[in-house]
Amino acid sequence: MVQSKIALAIIDVQEDFLPSHGSLAIKDGRDIIPLINNLITTRKFKWGAIIATQDWHPKNHTSFASQHNVPPFTELEFTHPLGEKDPATGEVKTQKQVVWPDHCVQDSSGACLDASFLGNFNSISPNIPKTVVKKGYLCDREYYSCFQDTWGIHHTEMEDFLRENGITGVVFVGLAYDYCVLNSARDCAKDGFNTYVLKDYCKSVYPDKIAETEDLYKEAGVKIIEDDLLKEL
Ligand code: VGL
Ligand code: ZN
Question: Is-above-0.90 flag for pTM?
Fold first, then answer.
């Protein structure tokens, strides 16, 4: 049997997603930071690697409502960035996507990882492989997953990093439970890794839709766990 090697992926713990001043502040988002800090500082968990992700948009990113002269949280139809056609219909592929307030603009204070988290992340033992994966930097497409854009065209270094380090499973935490954590975990499971999400270490944009969100995790084969299970992974 192959020995398990579990990575921790911490998604988008960035100022713009945090109350009270973040432009896309997620309710109670700051509550998870001490929990996450604890995960990376205690020696109780032997992580095989630790990844922090960062939403990293150009200032005119297409996911910003301001680029389309519509209010934030409007759903718009987007066309495939390379004009790829659906073979069945011959029409250019489209996706419906929500547009957001401007957020996580490259090199802005809102794009920074929370300072206490960053301090702990930087102090992780050099024996544990760690990296920061940026996403969302191509202007013409949305990214929720830290593996790829929503069209599956451009892939980040996430999968290669996991494979190079012999990772067999990944535990996800962070923001937002119903967007970037969800889409990252789904892609991770699709890539064949044992995939877990620590529910109490995440917060949602839409906390009242938690049941729908959790159905999507379950359909993707992602296990929703609590931290007492970590020692058994
Ligand atoms: C996210 C909306 C837009 C996230 C990122 O990190 O969940 N949500 N960009
Ligand atoms: Zn974003």
Answer: yes
